[in-house]
Amino acid sequence: MSFLVSARKYRPTTFNEVVAQGHVVNTLLNSIALKRIAHAYLFSGPRGVGKTTTARIFAKALNCPNASGGEPCNTCDACEEISQGRCIDVIEIDGASNNGVEQVRTIRDSVRYTPSRDKYKMYIIDEVHMLSKGAFNALLKTLEEPPSHAIFIFATTEPHKLPPTVISRCQRYDFRRIAVEDIVLQLRHICGIEGIEAEDTALFAIAKKGDGSMRDSESIFDQVVAFSGNSLTYDSVRQVLHIVDQETFFRVTDLIVTGDSSGGFALADEVVMSGYDIQDFLTGLEEHFRNLLVAKATGETRLIEAPEDIRTRYATVAEQFSEGDLLRLLRLTGQTMQSVRYSAQPRLRFEVALIDMIKMDSTVEISTLLSTVGSGGVQLATPVSRSTQSSRASHTPHTASTPLAVHDARRDKSGSSAGTGDMVEGIRQAEHVYKQALSANTLTVQQPSISITTSSPPLSGHADISTHRNIPTNPIVQMLIDGLDAVLVQRT
Ligand SMILES: [Zn+2]
Q1: pLDDT, average across residues 308-337
Q2: Angle between the 234-241 and 200-210 helix axes, to the nearest 10 degrees?
Q3: Predicted TM-score of the model (pTM)
Q4: What is the set of domains in the chain, with CATH numbers?
Q5: Is the CB of residue 24 less than 8 Å from the CB of residue 44?
Q6: Cα of 111 to ligand 1 centre, how many Å?
Q7: Cα 17 to middle of ligand 1, angstroms
C-alpha cells in the first residue's frame, strides 16, 4: 500500500472532526438545519487550518442523500466523489492558476446548467484573492443573481485583497489559527492509531513549529517519524528541525540570576558553534521571557504553550524576577534582534547583549523605592487635592524660584514641536533632580505633581505630571512608566 501523508490520511471527513473551528462549524450546521443556505461563502484564515476541508464537508453535507444531523454519510457516491475531488457537480478550482477573465467566463457559463445528479452545483475556489481584477468583475454578475442551485465557496488566506463588492455578497467565516494544545491532541490521536510512542515535549515542539497550521504540523510530524521511527523523542525532533533546546533558554535565565558573565560567553559560543541562527535563538529567547512575564504577571501558566512540567518550571523561575526586569529583558532582546539583523558582526552584538542581560541591574520595585524614600527621612506628602497642592506649591519659594518642569524642558529645547529626544531629556533631568533630592533628603511628592529641592548642589524641580497619560496613583509610578526605569538600585 502506498504511503499517504498524515495531512491527507487524517483529514476530517465530518464537521465533528474539524479541529478548533467550532464557531464556523456550528453556524454551518445550524444553517443546514434551518435550511438557510447562502449562495456565496467566504472562508478566510491562515493556511492549513481547515478552510478547504470544511468547504468539502459542507459540499458533502448539502449533496449527500443520507445526511443526518447536518453531517454527511461519507459512504454514498456523492460523498466519495466529493472526497476524492472528482464529483462533476462540486468543482474545485485553484484561484492561483485559474485567475483570468476567461476561466471565470467558463464558470459563469456552466453555472446556469442544473447539477447533473446532486442537489447543488458548488464551486470551491481556493486562493480566491489571486483572481485578477477583470476576473472578479466577471464573477460579480453571477454572484449578484446566482441560479438557485449554485453555491460558491471562496477560500483565502488574504481576504483584504478581495474587492469589497465581492465580500459584501458573501457570508464571511473567519477561521482561527489552531492552538498548540489542539494540534498536540490531534498528533497524539494519530500516534495512537499508528502505534507511535511520543514524548509530550516532542509533540509540543512539532506543534509549535507548525505555527497554528494543522497541515504544516502534520507534515513536520511525518518528517520526524521518517527520521526516528516509531519512537518520537524531544531530542530527535530537535535534530530534525534544528531547533534550540528549551534548556538553553533556562540556562540564560540562570546566568542572569547568578550574574555569571563567563557562562554567558560560553553559551554564546555554544549557540554559534552549533550552527543555530542567532535570530532564531533570539526569537526563542524572546518567547522564553514572554512566558516568564506571563507567569509573573498573571500568576498562572495557562497562556504558556508548553507541556505541564515546563509550565511549572516557568512559574518557579518567574519568582526570581520582577515584572520590570522581564519587560526590560524583552525590550533588550527585541533591540538585539534589530541590531543583529543589520550588523556586520552579529556574533559580537549577540554576545554583548547576553552579557548586558547578565549584568543588568534589577529594576527597583515601587514599594521598595517608597520604603527606601520613607526610611531615608525623605518627606512624602500625603495625597492632596490639586487646589491645595497648587497653593502649597506657591508657598514654597525654593521650588518656585528655579522651576525645572519636565514639560518645559521638552518645549524649550525644540521650540514648537516637542521631539521624543527632548522628552527623554526632560525625564533625564527629572531623574537627576530626583536622585539629588534623595541624597539631600528634600523630596516632596504630591499628587499629581512632584517637587524636589536640594541644597547641594543647588537644584530644585517641579514636575507637573497631571497632563501625562493615565493620571497616576503615585507620581513615582508615573515617572517610572514614562521612562524612569533607569532609576535603579543595585541588585546586591
Ligand atoms: Zn453521503
Answers
A1: 92
A2: 30
A3: 0.68
A4: 6-174 (3.40.50.300), 180-241 (1.10.8.60), 252-358 (1.20.272.10), 366-486 (no CATH)
A5: no
A6: 23
A7: 16
